[in-house]
Amino acid sequence: MKYQFLLLLFLSLSFSAQKAEFSNVETRKATFEFHKIKGPSLGTGVVGMQTIKAFAIFIEQESTDHSPEIFNKVQFEAMNFDGKKSTVFLCIYENENGLPGKILDHAKIILEIPIKNNKIIADLSSLKIKVPTNGYFIGFEWIHSKENIINGTQTDGPKPYNPAISGIQIEKPNLFFFDRNWQKDKEQLSSSLKIDVDYLPEN
Questions:
Q1: What is the distance between the alpha carbons of residues 52 and 180, in angstroms, rounded to a whole number?
Q2: Cα–Cα dist 174/60, whole Å
Q3: How many other CB atoms are there within 10 angstroms of residue 4's CB atom?
Q4: I need a labelling partner for 132 at 20 to 30 A (CA). Which of 32, 58, 65, 153 fits?
Q5: Is residue 191 within 8 Å of residue 175, measured between CB atoms?
Q6: pTM here?
Q7: SS3 state at 146
């Protein structure tokens, strides 16, 4: 009986700790659509790395006369290697002197990427996340777990993690990554993530 009580207490504490870890993550209000595709549109993109926690791109806001906006839908393409599901955070960051800064309120959203290649539409409208007037960064933070690691023949160097997010080549590189701190990608292997965002007027 005492053992059962201790086990129950341990499970309760474990659950509480997990809940605290994800306290700033929206898991209930955002909704997602998944549409199977043959593969990422342009065959370029990024995966998480053991040394790289996140990738993001900058989106500049056009000046408008109407009321402030809120985020509506975010659309992107993703795939997994190894024939398994993965989890990742969709994040929207403040613009802090030209680099990703603090994550906006309610704008760290966990989602599960299915096994197949998918076009994913995330409906964030119910979260009422305000769009910063000085531009913002949007991207993904990889979860470095054994479930997300990409298995293969690699035996040394940083290990890669699912999912792969589709990218696009543009004339002016617009890809930032986090490796101890945020910095602009100089390799330009994929000069921008392929992310489409639209907005709703704030009521």
A1: 8
A2: 11
A3: 8
A4: 32
A5: yes
A6: 0.81
A7: coil
What does the block give as tokens for 3? Answer: 């053992």
How far apart (Å, rounded) are the C-alpha atoms in residues 101 and 93? 6
Largest CA distance in the chain: 67
pLDDT per position as a tens digit, 154-191:
667 788 999 999 998 888 889 999 999 999 987 656 68
20 φ, ψ (degrees, to nearest 5): -65, -40
Cα 153–Cα 165–Cα 36 angle in degrees, nearest 5: 100
Backbone angles phi, psi at 195, to 5 degrees: -125, 130
- The DSSP call for residue 3 is H
pLDDT for the residue numbered 43: 58
Over the stretch 6-50, which tens digit does the pLDDT of each residue have?
Answer: 333 323 323 333 333 333 455 558 999 999 887 655 457 899 998
